[in-house]
């Protein structure tokens, strides 16, 4: 199986504070990976390394796709609810890299944006104001913006962190439908739900460990990422 992300003895530190230490792992094409770990363990930093927002202190990480084929959905996005932008315009912003010089999207791009909205179940809201949406609807629009360019790699930083249970279920259903069509890497604290969705989990706690869903200790769901189990789960190539 071909890998799309490969880390080799990867370490990163902010000045003198180590965050990730000597991590080696692979993520394969079209896998659905859940990323778990304690707060401050390095999950968001690992996403930044994949996105090339920061560079390794030592070691290397290789991402086998072009930057415009990587999509990112942040944990939360602050925006002015009075800003005059429609839902369809938000989705089209995911195609800015191909905007023609004359400043208007082509018909095919408009169609792609509407298809992306249909995939997240919000096609009827295309012309609504983005600022008037509920939190769950807004998060689904951001997923539509991320997938409109048909990425090979989709990164999500706790996409269900600030939505209600109904919206959470909707988001997981959307991701389930996309499973197998792209590589999905999702940071989550909702282990009980995620464990039934993903192919594999990466536990990030300074080091990075690969676990199959059936190998995950029930303590992890309570945020107890204890060392004894981690120490026996040595290098993590699937």
What does this entry look like structurally?
The chain is of the alpha/beta class and 238 residues long. It has 2 domains: 1-65 and 152-238, Rossmann fold (3-Layer(aba) Sandwich); 77-150, no CATH class. It is 27% helix and 25% strand. The protein has helices at 43-50, 87-92, 107-119, 135-147, 165-178, 191-194, 227-232; strands spanning 3-14, 17-28, 32-36, 58-63, 70-73, 153-157, 183-187, 200-205, 207-211. The chain has a 6-stranded mixed beta sheet with strand order 5-6-7-3-8-9, with helices on both faces. Helix 3 (107-119) crosses helix 4 and helix 4 (135-147) runs parallel beside helix 5. The longest helix has 14 residues, at 165-178. It starts with a strand and ends in a 6-residue tail after the last helix. 35% of the residues are buried. Residues 227-238 have low confidence and may be disordered.
Summarize the topology.
Blueprint: E1 3-14, E2 17-28, E3 32-36, H1 43-50, E4 58-63, E5 70-73, H2 87-92, H3 107-119, H4 135-147, E6 153-157, H5 165-178, E7 183-187, H6 191-194, E8 200-205, E9 207-211, H7 227-232
Parallel strand pairs: 3-7, 3-8, 5-6, 6-7
Antiparallel strand pairs: 1-2, 1-4, 8-9
Helix pairs in contact: 3-4, 4-5
Fill in the keyword field for this structure:
25% strand; 238 residues; alpha/beta; 27% helix; six-stranded mixed sheet; disordered C terminus; Rossmann fold
């Amino acid at each position: 199986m071909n890998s799309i992300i490969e880390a080799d003895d990867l370490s990163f530190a902010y000045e003198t504070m180590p965050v990730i230490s000597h991590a080696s792992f692979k993520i394969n094409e079209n896998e659905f990976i859940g990323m778990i770990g304690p707060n401050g363990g390095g999950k968001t930093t690992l996403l930044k390394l994949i996105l090339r927002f920061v560079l390794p202190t030592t070691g290397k990480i290789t991402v086998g796709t072009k930057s415009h084929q990587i999509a990112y959905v942040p944990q939360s996005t602050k925006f002015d609810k009075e800003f005059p932008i429609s839902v369809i315009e938000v989705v089209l912003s995911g195609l800015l890299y191909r905007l023609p010089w004359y400043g208007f999207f082509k018909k095919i791009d408009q169609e792609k944006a509407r298809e992306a909205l249909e995939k997240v179940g919000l096609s009827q809201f295309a012309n609504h104001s983005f600022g008037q949406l509920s939190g769950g609807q807004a998060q689904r629009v951001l997923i539509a913006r991320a997938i409109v360019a048909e990425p090979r790699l989709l990164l999500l930083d706790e996409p269900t962190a600030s939505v209600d249970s109904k919206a959470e279920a909707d988001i997981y259903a959307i991701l389930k439908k996309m499973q197998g069509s792209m590589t999905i890497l999702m940071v989550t604290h909702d282990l009980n739900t995620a464990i039934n969705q993903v192919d594999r989990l990466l536990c990030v706690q300074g080091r990075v460990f690969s676990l199959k869903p059936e190998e995950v200790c029930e303590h992890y769901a309570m945020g107890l990422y204890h060392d004894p189990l981690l120490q026996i789960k040595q290098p993590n190539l699937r």
